[in-house]
Amino acid sequence: MTGSSLYCTKIYGFGIIYQSKHYTTMNVNLKKAIAYFNGETIKNEKQADVLISDVVAQALFEVSGGNVPLTPDEKYRCWKISQRIIANPDAAELEADDIVLIRKIISPALSAGVYGQIVDLLEGKDK
User: Cα–Cα distance between 124 and 65 in angstroms, integer?
Assistant: First the structure.
């Protein structure tokens, strides 16, 4: 959060939001398992939980722009966001614009159930 002085800080159950004159940054815990419709967690081939952090980071890392038209700047931002998530999945620092871009990327790539869980988490609606 360089380059801006803070004038308001709010704390919510899903993370800390810093509001500044230039942007809003949230620390979001994406290290949560994805669940099936029946509440059971989805497992990978090694029987480990599939984590939202991994799904989002991989989608951002692998996006080519074929299904979702992207500017070169958006592609670069996808890579930068994926690296922040990989580096700190339990407190990923995301700006409001990052969440908009994440939603744009993951929407065509994921089922409604997985997409909904991720959006609820990103927007603080996760229980």
Answer: 28
Instruction: Check residue 106 and give its pLDDT.
Output: 95
Query: 14 near 29, Cβ under 8 Å?
Result: yes
The domain locations on the chain are: 29-88+97-122
Predicted confidence (pLDDT) at residue 118 exceeds the cutoff of 60: yes
Q: DSSP assignment, residue 123?
A: T
Phi and psi for 114 in degrees, rounded to 5?
-70, -45
- Dist CA 28 CA 88 (whole Å): 10
Separation CA 4–CA 79 (nearest Å): 24
Q: How far is CA 124 from CA 11, 27, 47, 64, 108, in A?
A: 11, 11, 28, 28, 22
Q: Cα–Cα distance between 28 and 74 in angstroms, integer? A: 21
Cα separation of 19 and 116, whole Å? 25
